[in-house]
Amino acid sequence: MPFPSRPLPRRAPFWRVLLPLALTCATLGPAQADPEGTRLAQQVYDRPDGRDLTTRGTMVLQERGHAPRTREMFIYRRDQGGGEVSTLIRFTAPGDIADTGLLTIDHRAGESDQWVYLPALGKPRRIPAARQGGRFVGSDLFYEDLRDRRVALDEHRWLRQETYEGVKTEVLESTPVDPANSVYGKRLSWIHPEARVALRIDFFRPGQNQPFKRFTARRLERIQGYWTVTDSLMTDLGSGHQTRMTSTLTRYDRGLDPVLFSRRALEDPAFESRFRP
Amino acid sequence: MTVARLSGVLALTLLLLLGAISGALLSRIHLDNAPEAYFPSDAPAVRFESRLREDFPPDQVLIALFEGDDLFSDAALQPLFGLVEALERNPKVERVLAVSSVDHIGAAAEGFVVEPLLDDDIAAGLDSEQRRQRVLDDRLAASYLVADDGQAMALIVRPIELGDSLQRLALERDTRAAIAAAGLEGRLTALAGQVALDVAQLRAMIRDTLTFVPATMGLGLLIIWLLFRRVLAVAVSALVIAVVVNLTVALLVLAGKPYTLVSAILPPLMSALTIASLIHWLNALSQAAQRGLSGPARVDWARRRVARPTLFTALTTAAGLASLGFSSIQPIAAFGLVAAAGMLAQSAIVIGLVPPIFARWDRGSWHSGHALRPLDHAVAWLRHLGMRHAGWVLAIAALVLALGVPQIWRIHTETDMLRFFPEAHPITQANTRIQDRLIGTTTLELVFHVGARDAFKRPEHLAVIDTVQDWLEDQPEVSHTLSMVDLIEEMHWGFHDERADYRTLPRDPRLIAQYLFIYDGTDLYELVDREFARTRLTLNLDIRGARAINAFIARTEAHLADLDLQDMEVRVAGFGRLFADQEQLLIDGQIRGLAAAVVLISLFMLAMWRRPGDAALCMVPNLAPILLIFIAMGVLGIWLDMATAMIASVTAGIAIDDTIHLFHAYRRHLAAHGSRVWALARAYQHTGRAVVATTLILCGQFLLLGTSAFVPTREFGLLTAVGLLTALVFDLLLLPALLIAVGRLRDHRHRVRPHWTRH
């Protein structure tokens, strides 16, 4: 059982999964109707997660009856302060997509800018960041899952305490205030009470009562004092298709240069590679 | 024939019990006329289709067409967007394809975009004309979602896998309700597609069942009253008909088979056949009463007269019906086997349960049968003609058949589900409208397969698909095609600022892999599996009938055979393929079924008469009507389809009954008196009347079916009536002629045989 079940020290640092951290945040937001739910959501959103993060990891797509499809990548993330967060993802394998990159700048007002770099094309192109329901590189992650979702965008309701994988979690329901700004109709999150990390999230389509997708954290580790999900699984409950995200190396607070989060770094894998740990 | 006699009360109780049990089973009836119900589950094409649907969405959809000259105004678009969202929330819906939900791939400032073609946000920044232009400029959507003039727009509802026709009906109702709630009813001009067609057929078969069961039963009971004027006869007949019909349909339930448009013919058919059996019984009872017999003696006399022929006619009819069990088309096979079982149950009831009821409650005298007297003259005239001019009758019959036989080759084996409805029917109009304004509703798929991962990221494979697609688009039957090549070309174009020269398939395999890697829409994975080892090219065709679809498939396969497909396997699949495959199944089933019917009935004849010559002789007047039915179909241009495929076997099974009754009577009189002419006259005098009456009643009932607005029911009714009438004429005219001619031949042989061979 990878999750700590004993009480964690107060103000324990939080994890940043590769991308799933953002995903965890995305499920939470302030509630108006339920103060307890709102407080819990705010705690998750506000948890410490370092000034920057570098991860080397894999994304494994798994489909019943087929061999897994593995992608390797580096992820750089930097909190620019004031609610602005930049992320650069560089894929390194397999060969036909090696050096493909994705740069995302999440602005404090909530909007995002996004560029993609295709090495076969040789130049970066802007892609609209507003597309929440699009699948991220054919995985089970939607673009919406990759972004920090501000607390105020959802109404939160604390539902119950529930033991999940041996941990007594807080179950939180988050419903978009404006249905138009989320591809999901509702999310249920099982929050680790001390780490303030979602160990499981069920995603619901609008108007439906059964989840169609499930995130589960498979390993939670404390790295450099920050709680980090280093192994997670996103499952499409309809097709059974799964995306497993694992981190083989995680470094926080390396003092990443802001230039790494520029179009120059995006279209120059050699330049970016200098920042690899 | 000796049958253990039950008490009248016990027989009635058993009958009521049977009715109650079978009636209770009817509540479990499974109404399913979905196309899948027709195909044998072990057919290779069906198995392939089933595997295909594990990776790709179904191609049976519901298409709503909205028309107007302001479709891109807020007044029309806002309700449409709301409608799409409402339908997507419906748990029966897998996806809704509309301008707001399909991917649009294009260029954006400094970049590239995959976004909805026209949703709320995009529409907000455009005026009506710009919206219209944006949609019409989209290469992928324009051809199937919006008409060229922008005045017709489709919304395609793709259901999850629905279990039966009732679920399809529910989906159609939900869609209509959602359209009404969105305020778009006034703009809705068509609701079509396979789902709507299935629902229309479901409604038609329910309506026919509710109309023709009471109608055929009412007509039969009226005739029984007119013929016999006995309340008991009418009451018992009504009860027996109800029990037999319920029991037969209950057998379908017990067999786990769905109630389809084919099985919808069961209730009126069983009702008609039961009345025919009852008339023979009542006729015998009437004759017994006129002989002064009463009570059990009357019943015993009647039973001795009809039990054996009733049993054999049931066996032969059952054999004819059961021969349909050789059909590979599931509902036809189920119809035949269940109807055959129902027929046997019916004979058991008529022979075993009905007599005790009459023995217990039948008191008083019977109507003298004057109502049947006019028939005697016709019967006598035909018999007389056949006997006096046997040679001429046989020669003319042979000539008519010989001249007609070439017409059989003009029969078209064809099934067109839309042709099952009149031209004015809303479903026909709706399909035609959508075909005229947008695309054909017949779908077909070319499935390309390579046994290696990522094969369809290779430009050489994609180039072949592109070539095939180009060829297909040049075919007159094809109104729309879509493949993953389209999406890649659109991405290439979008990534290059929508320059026309980039709307092509890139040749760099890395670029293709990278386009596919970052593609974040939903449409791609409806065209290629995630292994990129299997992809489909979808087609919409402007043709509907199985024959035309088969011709198109054959031409496509021939073209594919001429291409260098490298290591790719290509198969034609989809609803159109399965539907077209029915053509061969129908022909095979028809040939096997008819052959089985003839063999089985011949064997029963042999078992009954115990003389091969007599068995063969009895088959002649019954094979001739089958030939005449096929000749009529050829002359009148009636297709051999799902409904008409059953007629020959059903007619053969029923028509032989008259021959059995007549020949049985003839042999009895011949054995008693030795004179062929006298035996024929007596047999036709006594039995001919009942034979004519039952055939006319059956024909009346089948002609009632001929008034159905549902073409399969109508053609089944009319052609079966033609077949039965022809068989009657042949029984009354040709059979005496044959008996006389064969008798003369035998006499002649007897006379010319050398004396040393005589016994």
TrEMBL record, chain B:
It is found in: Cell membrane. Residues 623-741 form the SSD domain. Keywords: Cell membrane, Membrane, Transmembrane, Transmembrane helix. The chain crosses the membrane at residues 210-228, 235-255, 261-285, 306-326, 332-354, 390-409, 591-609, 616-640, 646-666, 687-710, 716-743. PROSITE patterns: SSD (PS50156). It is a multi-pass membrane protein. It holds the Pfam family MMPL. PANTHER family: BLR2997 PROTEIN, MEMBRANE PROTEIN MJ1562-RELATED. This is MMPL family transporter. It comes from Marichromatium bheemlicum.
